[in-house]
Amino acid sequence: MLAGPWASQILGDLGATVYKVERPGSGDDTRGWGPPFLQDPAGGSGDAAYYLCTNRNKRSITVDFTTPAGREIVQALAARADVVLENFKVGGLRAHGLDYPTLRALNPRLIYCSITGFGQTGPYAARPGYDFLIQAMGGLMSITGAKDGEPGAGPQKAGVALTDILTGLYATIGILAALAHRERTGEGQYVDVALLDVQVACLANQAMNYLVGGKPPVRMGNAHPNIVPYQDFPTADGHMIIAVGNDAQFGRLAAELGRPGWAEDPRFATNAARVANREALIAAIREATVTRTTGDWVRRLERVQVPCGPINALDAVFADPQVRARELRVDLPHPVAGHVPQVASPLRLSATPVGYRNAPPTLGADTRAVLGEVLGMSAAEIDALAARHIV
Q1: What pLDDT digit, counting tens, does each position of 298-344 carry?
Q2: 208 has pLDDT over 80
């Protein structure tokens, strides 16, 4: 639902021509995953925001590939394509003649990327996989949330479908690597990407903490297992983040908090010592941070180069001067609503900048154009397919 479209949107941003193949009549399920829905000028409801977040720079074509004629259309497109990207369960496309061996026979240079919950092999391969499930099975939820004994303790998922997003990124990397290989050798290949594999790989330092130390990490709320202080702190009007990355930064923090002696205190002078004496230090810092507002602390700590910041809701995020300066919101023309907001790509390329060519397409907006331009079908042929609900 998200990992595949996320990968293809990245490729579209980088200049690829992306054909999004959807079911006639209903299309991508996420078009209905709302509210909120995009509104037209008359107040009518359009596609869901969920769909709009991940489908710009694509052309939507509707094809029922469960029919022989629809299968032939998709096969003909794949025969001309550089990449096929699919997000079906293992074996789901074999019955329709759209699996890798079948399409590779039509196009030996084809790069075929499959995104699944658990990969093409192993005892779980046939299972469906969703981000929430994989965050649980892959260990992320075991280290996310308030620690045991605190109010609201218990496993928590991330606030966005992070495993899907990361899987989309890895799929994009795999596709680009396969394209580079094909440039050298002329050979296409199969790319197998699994949500579970990605989630385990992205446990990063927490995975290594376990593999090296032998003890499974636990939930610590906003605290960091390896760095102190590196978490949220209360202020006179809310909360803020302090993220100290080295002993010099800690010394400057201590001085600004009015506790310069902490930098020489053997309990706190090094990060290892601060981790060992975490509870005493965090309690003492909290006593100091509640005496000023978040804004006051941010100004004071930024002045001495201690990493810190507010905890922003999304309205504050998009009003932030740095976010505005980096132009992280873009607005694209939309045929129904007039325009649609988008979150910009984070990629900044000096020679080949990201392009925002078109908004997420309405369902089937490009079917006739693609079938005519790419496959050379006549208007009469397309009309006949439409009459049979194949396109």
Answers
A1: 999 999 999 999 999 999 999 999 999 999 999 999 998 999 999 99
A2: yes
Q: Which residues contact 375 (CB under 8 A, 6 or more apart)?
A: 73, 76, 77
Phi, psi of 53 (to 5 degrees): -75, -15
Question: 226: which residues sit within 8 A by CB, 6+ positions away?
Answer: 205, 209, 275
- Which domain, by its residues, includes 178? 3-202+320-387
Q: What is the CA 69 to chain-centroid distance, rounded?
A: 35
Q: SS3 of 103, please?
A: helix
For residues 262 and 268, the answer to whether their CB atoms sit within 8 Å is: yes
Burial of 346 (0-12, 13-18, 19+ CB in 10 A): exposed
Residue ending a domain, choose from 286, 311, 336: 311
Rounded CA-CA distance 243/169 in Å is 26
Strand segments (E) across the chain: 19-22, 37-39, 45-48, 59-62, 83-86, 111-116, 189-194, 230-235, 238-243, 308-310, 329-334, 338-343
State which amino acid sits at residue 165: I
Q: Would you state the pLDDT for residue 175? A: 98
What is the count of structural domains for the chain? 2
| Count of Cβ atoms closer than 10 Å to residue 168 Cβ | 26
Same domain membership, residue 71 and residue 28:
yes
| Joined tokens for residue 30 | 């996420």
In a domain, 156, yes or no: yes
Cis peptide before 229 (omega within 30 of 0): yes
The CATH number of residue 300's host domain is: 3.30.1540.10
Q: Is the pTM of this model over 0.90?
A: yes
Active site residues: 164
Residue with tokens 């050798």, as numbered in its chain: 185
Tell me, yes or no, whether 72 and 163 share the same domain.
yes
